[in-house]
Each structure stands twice: as structure tokens, then as C-alpha cells.
UniProtKB/TrEMBL annotation:
This is Glutamate decarboxylase. Keywords: Decarboxylase, Lyase, Pyridoxal phosphate. Belongs to the group II decarboxylase family. It catalyses: L-glutamate + H(+) = 4-aminobutanoate + CO2. Its cofactor is pyridoxal 5'-phosphate. Its EC number is 4.1.1.15. It comes from Pseudonocardia xishanensis. Pfam families: Pyridoxal_deC (PF00282). InterPro entries: Glutamate_decarboxylase, PyrdxlP-dep_de-COase, PyrdxlP-dep_Trfase, PyrdxlP-dep_Trfase_major. It is an enzyme of class 4 (lyase).
Length: 456
């Protein structure tokens, strides 16, 4: 694999003389001959990282950027724990299983099986693999070929699903956006299914605009398809964000294992699960939904350890932090946190709409995430607005929507735990100033080629 192009200067670092008795130069792209004093090495790395954006002001990411001191302390105390060493760290392994059982209860599973992952991308890969393997087993039992599997999903899915289809030779059947429908529709999903469809991916919270896909309607459409054509097609719910929002904010919404057609669900512990980056979760309805031949057993770490994951060694601290958050907040605490995020999102989106400069695509009333576009006739683009906010330290992405709605250039704001009404007010002040200034332009100055963000 070729190395990426280098960014920045290749010149060596000339360290400040205060760092040592003699002038020091440090090469940027190869090992130094003799190493450095730890204080010098720390200061060089620390100083360069100051040029990163402020994570708390990053409204592009769904990933947790704030946590209590107790979370940070537990993770620091667990830096040396390898999650895969379950025989050596039995309590950490037990906390992982408790988290699985808690999520199963939250998602109405009766006989679940599940595991932690490094994030939702890995969990989605595992969910897709289980769908493919179940389809292969059924087809072989029927004496039918298994060489042309396909998976149906909206064009708005996260990039991990495109990777899954590419890496595991599954044809991706993407339902395009159309008109005001900016995610997967039930009828459109069913129309693309056939005997080679391993499953349908339904997203509870699109990254493009924060909207929920109609999972109950999708399942009902697949029920009708089975009644008409005999096709029994399972659903995987990509709940990377929404699976930790809907149970607390929308408890009556049926999207989870209450729907018999839902075979598996994933979520990101490090998104609205309120843990720092590095943990996701994958759950299956029951053991039958996860083929046994996908589970490996090893004994060279001590004991007989079943494992189903793409990664092997990975940190245990994030799983421990997840259990802490479940223990610390409980159902009532999570509900307060998530509802507060939604309240901030809906209040902020209403103020942005009231400026008269923008139209809302969503308002944050599902995921606490909303997207908006610049009104026709304004002399600036979404990319101008993103750049203006970035000058003040706010990281708000501007991006175009996928094929068939590439005419939409949107801005999106993700409201996470720690983004308060006060911070939202400060952002609104800066956006108001930016709009006033940008309205003096003769026309838009930046297009999508100027975007500083990659949506995927």
C-alpha cells in the first residue's frame, strides 16, 4: 500500500533552546539517531497538536468529546488492559457481557447474543457477515447457487456499508434519494429485493440529516413481500447513533427486536453512548441469527475463548467506561442527557431558520442533529458559511448530498452531550455576524471543492 502524500514541511524541527543545553534538531519523517529527553519529545508533540481544532467546538463529529473526570480516570487506570484477554481480565470481560445484557434489555431482545467492537463500522461488518453467511447456508440447503449475494440499503448509508459490500463481494443495491425523501423508503427497499438479497440495512439516524428511516414500515413491506413471493429477508438496523437516542426519547417507536424481522442491531458506544472513541456494540436477536461457524475459539490466552470480531487486541478502557456510564446514569439519566441534546438542537435550528438566510432540512427532533441549506438568492454558499465559522473556531461541515440530490449543499450540526444552550447561543452569535458580513459579497466565493471536511 503506497504511503499517503506528506502534509506540511519535511524540514527537521529546530527545538527551542530552552528544551536543552545544546541546540536540538529533530527529523520529522525518520527516527532520530539517539532519541530525546521525554520532556522535549512531549513538548514537540504537544505544540504541534495545538494546531488541531478544538474538539468541543467540532460540530461535525458524532463522537463523544466530553466526559466526566471519573470516566477519564477509569480509562486511564485501564490503559494496560487488552479486551481480548478475557481469562486474564475476567472482571473486564464480565462488564462487557453486562453491557450486552443491558443493551438487549433496552432493545427488547429475549435471547440475545452480542459483543463489543472498536466502533459501529466493525459492528456493521459483523452484522453484514452474519447476514451473508445465513443466506449462504439457506441457499446451499436448498441446492441453489451462492455466487451473487446482494444487500439493499439507502444511498445515505455510512461508508462502512460500501466497504462491507466491496470487501466481501456483495452487490450493493442502493436506493437513491428522490425529491424530499432523503433516506431509504419502505416500498423502494422491497422493490430491489430478490432471492439473492442477504438483507436490508435500515438506518436509525442518517448521518446526512439526522432523520430516522421508517424501520417498522420497511419490515412491514418485507412481510408483504414474503407473503407474495416467499422471500424471507432479514433487516439489520444500523443504530450507530439512534439506538442510543430512540429508547430514551422515543420509547414507543418500534424499530428494534420488537419487530420480528430485525435480526441484528449495532450502535456506537462512543457516540450517544457517551464514551470516548473506541467502542461499538453488535447484538443479534438470538444464537440462530449468528451462524456458529463465524465464531472462533482459541485457548492460547488461557481458557476456551470464543471470539467473533475483525480485531483481536484492543483496549478495554472504553468498555469499562461504557459500563460506568450505564451504571452512573441509568435509564433516567440517559433520558435527561439525550432529551437535553434534542432540546438544544431544536431550539438552535429554530433560531437558525429565524435568520431568514437558511431553510431547514431537518430540525433535530429525531437525532439531535439537523441539516440546513442556504436560501436561494443569498450571495453566499454553504461552504462560505462553513469557512466563516471556522475562522472563529467553530467546525461546522458543509457537504453535498449523494447522487440524484447533488444539488443540495448543506450544513449540519451535531449536538452532543456537553454542547449546552450557552454554547449554542455563542455559536448563534457568530453565525449571525457571519451572515451579516457574507451578505456584503457580490456572490458565493466557495463551492464544494473548497470544503474542508470529508463527509465520509
Amino acid at each position: 500500500m503506497p504511503l499517503p502524500e506528506r502534509s506540511g514541511s519535511d524540514e527537521p524541527v529546530f527545538a527551542n533552546p530552552v528544551f536543552g543545553e545544546e541546540p536540538i534538531t529533530v527529523p520529522r519523517n525518520e527516527l532520530s539517531a539517539a532519541g530525546l529527553d521525554p520532556g522535549v519529545a512531549y513538548q514537540i508533540v504537544h505544540d504541534e497538536l495545538m494546531l488541531d481544532g478544538n474538539a468541543r467546538l467540532n460540530l461535525a463529529t458524532f463522537v463523544t468529546t466530553w466526559g466526566e473526570d471519573h470516566v477519564q480516570r477509569l480509562m486511564a487506570e485501564s490503559l494496560d488492559k487488552n479486551m481480548i484477554d478475557k481469562d486474564e481480565y475476567p472482571r473486564t470481560a464480565e462488564l462487557e457481557q453486562r453491557c450486552v445484557r443491558m443493551l438487549a434489555d433496552l432493545w427488547h431482545a429475549v435471547e440475545p447474543i452480542g459483543c463489543s467492537t472498536t466502533g459501529s463500522s466493525e459492528a456493521c461488518m459483523l452484522g453484514g457477515l452474519a447476514l451473508k453467511r445465513r443466506w449462504q447456508h439457506r441457499r446451499r440447503a436448498e441446492g441453489k447457487p451462492t455466487d451473487k449475494p446482494n444487500i439493499v440499503m439507502g444511498v445515505n448509508v455510512q461508508i462502512c456499508w460500501d466497504k462491507f459490500a466491496n470487501y466481501w463481494d456483495v452487490e450493493p443495491r442502493l436506493v437513491p434519494m428522490s425529491g424530499d425523501r432523503l433516506h431509504l423508503g419502505a416500498a423502494e427497499a422491497a422493490a430491489l429485493c430478490d432471492e439473492n438479497t442477504i438483507g436490508v440495512v435500515a438506518v436509525l439516524g442518517s448521518t446526512f440529516d439526522g432523520s430516522y428511516e421508517p424501520i417498522a414500515e420497511i419490515c412491514a413491506a418485507l412481510d408483504a413481500l414474503q407473503a407474495e413471493q416467499g422471500l424471507d429477508i432479514p433487516v439489520h438496523v444500523d443504530g450507530a447513533s439512534g439506538a442510543m437516542i430512540a429508547p430514551f426519547c422515543d420509547p414507543d417507536l418500534e424499530w428494534d427486536f420488537r419487530l420480528p424481522r430485525v435480526a441484528s442491531i449495532n450502535t456506537s458506544g462512543h457516540k450517544f453512548g457517551l464514551v470516548y472513541p473506541g467502542v461499538g456494540w453488535a447484538l443479534w436477536r438470538d444464537a440462530a441469527a449468528l451462524p456458529e461457524d463465524l465464531v472462533f475459539r482459541v485457548n492460547y490466552l488461557g481458557g476456551d475463548m470464543p471470539t467473533f470480531a475483525l480485531n483481536f487486541s484492543r483496549p478495554g478502557g472504553q468498555v469499562i467506561a461504557q459500563y460506568y456510564q450505564f451504571l452512573r446514569l441509568g435509564h433516567g439519566g440517559f433520558r435527561r442527557v439525550q432529551l437535553t441534546c434534542r432540546e438544544v438542537a431544536t431550539a438552535l435550528s429554530a433560531k437558525i431558520a429565524a435568520t431568514g438566510a437558511f431553510d431547514l432540512l431537518t430540525d433535530g427532533s429525531e437525532l439531535p442533529v439537523f441539516a440546513f441549506v442556504v436560501k436561494d438568492g443569498e450571495p453566499f454558499s454553504a461552504f462560505d458559511v462553513s469557512a466563516a465559522l471556522r475562522e472563529a473556531g467553530w467546525l461546522v461541515p458543509a457537504y453535498t448530498f449523494p447522487k440524484d440530490r447533488e444539488d443540495i449543499s448543506a450544513l449540519r450540526i451535531v449536538v452532543r452531550n456537553g454542547f449546552s444552550h450557552d454554547l449554542a447561543g455563542l455559536l448563534m452569535d457568530e453565525l449571525t455576524r457571519a451572515v451579516e458580513r457574507l451578505r456584503h459579497q457580490s456572490g458565493p466565493q466557495r463551492g464544494k471543492e473548497a470544503a474542508g471536511f470529508s463527509h465520509t
